Amino acid sequence: MTSDEFFQAQQLHRDGDLAAAASLLKDILDQTPNHVAAWRLYAGTLRELGRHDDADAADKSGNATEVDHTADVGASRCFTEI
Length: 82
Hints:
Blueprint (H helix, E strand, L loop, with lengths): L2 H12 L3 H14 L4 H13 L3 H30 L1
Helix pairs in contact: 1-2, 2-3, 3-4
């Protein structure tokens, strides 16, 4: 996944092509499941498409990813300060 793909998904969303944005975001997340910003945009896009259950699931995945990332950063910081 490149940042260009994420920027393209953002542009599709801004342009109102929500189905294409959701599809591209799903592809991005299949390749890079730890991309918190992609989870957030994907959840919002799904919600705009009326896919509320899928959006809730995407929010949960994004939250779990963010928590894992935050825990990793905190753990690495603890080890560097010892």
